[in-house]
Structure of Sepiapterin reductase:
Amino acid sequence: MKILALVTGASRGFGYSIVDQLIKETTNRLPNDDDDGASSDQNSIVIDLYLYARSLGNLESTEKMVREQFNNKSINVLVNKFAIDFCDIQDTEIAFRNSLINIEFKDYQKVIFFNNHGALSILKRVDSLSNFKQISNDIHSNLTSFVVTNSIFMEKIKEQNNPILPNTSFFLINVSSLAAIKAYDAWSIYCSAKAGYALNYAPGPMDTDMQAEIRANTVDQESKRHWVDMKDSGKLVCPFDSASKLVRLIFDNNFESAAHIDYYDQEW
Ligand SMILES: NC(=O)c1ccc[n+]([C@@H]2O[C@H](COP(=O)([O-])OP(=O)(O)OC[C@H]3O[C@@H](n4cnc5c(N)ncnc54)[C@H](OP(=O)(O)O)[C@@H]3O)[C@@H](O)[C@H]2O)c1
């Protein structure tokens, strides 16, 4: 079994948790050597990870986690790191396209793209905004770059999936993005025809750097108190729990294509 997983925003927070849970869930689903007399060779799993963040250095902790935790398992995890600043759309187009250049989808049984990166942007009231360059960058990072990367990914699938690759399943997961909702609608037709599955996943209020930024930078005092209370009362979602739910949804293939699923939607 060979899996290709692309994860943007993989350096920390939810992206880091997705990588961790993806490997754990795959390992958990490995059949035992004794089951059906299968040999460990037949059960061998390769996960090819394509990890993205603003710098290669930022991705080192994720790579280290993969090497330290999963070194001795009957699973071979290969880490490929890419530095892309998703605020820079021209650079994103070139660098993301280049990152896919050597991929042959026919080599994989599952291809999963977790489009997960995100930035908070400026937490000020509209009447006190001034750094418009920063706002434009944040819109590119949170919105335009999702459209660009989704389009390039789908273009690559179309190139290689014609005639259809019967042994490869494609999953496109967009983590809480307006762009994602639009892209799903467009992709749902493609998905139903081409063995592809799209999901818009809202991961819940997670205890990551993003929440720390919200607590530090929210101007409105009532909202700020709300977020501080959430943290102090232990109500923030653990990113590993949310990632575990997402990865299990994908492996169970337990959702309608183009669905929008929230962490709180179902118990498990
Ligand atoms: N945390 C929450 O409460 C919450 C709630 C709902 C939805 N979400 C969504 O969940 C996703 C992950 O959030 P998180 O909580 O894990 O956030 P986080 O801890 O702040 O991590 C953000 C990730 O995105 C990457 N990133 C940010 N700006 C980038 C850029 N311009 N170019 C390339 N990479 C960039 C960061 O990489 P660097 O190492 O380069 O900084 C980092 O890996 C986001 O889409 C967010 O909107 C989060």
Remarks:
- Helices lie at 13-28, 60-70, 89-99, 132-160, 178-194, 209-217, 221-232, 239-252.
- Residues 132-160 form the longest helix (29 residues).
